[in-house]
């Protein structure tokens, strides 16, 4: 049975066998020579054999002692390797995060090359899902959430303000302008592409502007901005969407504002969310610092783009409960 083997005594024996002297083993272990001698005698009594013979001032292993020393050396080497592995895993720079799908694929993913290039020793797992993390039961460091920021009991920090406005392809805009020069009337005639998980929805936007739409007016409901933007690029209709996600499309002209005079609705939209204790992790703080710096640069670019497009900023919408 292994439970009667004293690992502390084995450590003393291994040191004496390796160094050849009780005094040297005692100095290495930080104990008295008598304590070392006592532990070695205890092992000899337990095994019923002599483990050393003396030659001058050195202790030489007997055949039984040599066999036990090889086994002890291998065992301690295995234990040290296991300890090192455990410590590396505990200290490993690993991040697990959850991100809104469209934001993750359109905004975050292209920037991760920079982050991972700065921290090439990190492991990272990213779950692109609209489901919010249950930090009590799931091993997630933090969420990059889209929403209004009302998550009680959690650390919540806004990183990007969204600017939402009616967008469409240049061809679809020209078609609507052919029907009427009034942009509000154009909305009445358009097929609306509605992101059902957006903070700003078509129904709300239309009601605030007192726009009437025919009873048989068509619209398409989607739960991903990525799909909404693609349909708008394809000329299917008019989407109420985000400059954050449509930035490249607006820069290249694949999408255009329906009318710059309609402005863009601004509100804090993307948030770092986690239990407060998670912010004490160095790897989490480093990621937070990095993404906030990226967001600041992006917001400067957004402001410049909006200026080029002639867009104004409207008041924060009346968010529904």
From TrEMBL:
The keyword Calcium does not apply. Keywords: DNA-binding, Transcription, Transcription regulation. PROSITE patterns: HTH_LYSR (PS50931). Residues 5-62 form the HTH lysR-type domain. This is LysR substrate-binding domain-containing protein. It comes from Paracoccus mangrovi. Pfam families: HTH_1 (PF00126), LysR_substrate (PF03466). Belongs to the LysR transcriptional regulatory family.
């Amino acid at each position: 049975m292994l439970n009667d083997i004293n690992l502390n005594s084995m450590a003393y024996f291994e040191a004496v066998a390796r160094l050849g002297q009780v005094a040297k083993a005692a100095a290495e272990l930080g104990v008295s020579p008598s304590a070392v001698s006592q532990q070695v005698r205890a092992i000899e009594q337990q095994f019923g054999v002599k483990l050393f013979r003396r030659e001058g001032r050195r202790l030489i292993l007997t055949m039984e002692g040599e066999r036990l020393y090889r086994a002890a050396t291998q065992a301690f080497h295995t234990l040290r390797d296991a300890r090192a592995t455990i410590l590396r895993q505990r200290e490993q720079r690993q991040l697990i995060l959850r991100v809104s799908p469209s934001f993750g694929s359109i905004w975050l993913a292209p920037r991760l090359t920079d982050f991972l290039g700065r921290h090439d020793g990190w492991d990272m797992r990213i779950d692109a899902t609209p489901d919010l993390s249950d930090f009590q039961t799931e091993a997630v460091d933090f969420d990059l959430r889209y929403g209004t920021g009302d998550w009680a009991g959690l650390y919540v920090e806004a990183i990007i303000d969204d600017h939402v406005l009616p967008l469409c392809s240049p061809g679809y805009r020209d078609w609507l302008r052919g029907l009427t020069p009034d942009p509000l009337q154009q909305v009445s005639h358009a097929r609306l592409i509605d992101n059902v998980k957006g903070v700003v929805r078509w129904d709300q936007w239309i009601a605030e502007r007192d726009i009437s739409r025919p009873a048989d007016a068509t619209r398409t409901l989607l739960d991903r901005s990525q799909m909404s933007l693609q349909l708008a690029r394809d000329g299917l209709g008019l989407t109420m969407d985000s400059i954050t996600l449509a930035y490249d499309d607006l820069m290249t002209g694949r999408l255009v504002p329906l009318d710059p005079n309609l402005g863009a609705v601004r509100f804090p939209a993307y948030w770092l969310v986690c239990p407060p204790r998670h912010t004490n992790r160095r790897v989490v703080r480093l990621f937070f610092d990095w993404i906030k710096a990226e967001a600041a640069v992006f917001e400067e670019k957004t402001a410049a783009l909006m200026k080029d497009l002639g867009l104004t900023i409207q008041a924060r919408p009346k968010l529904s409960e």
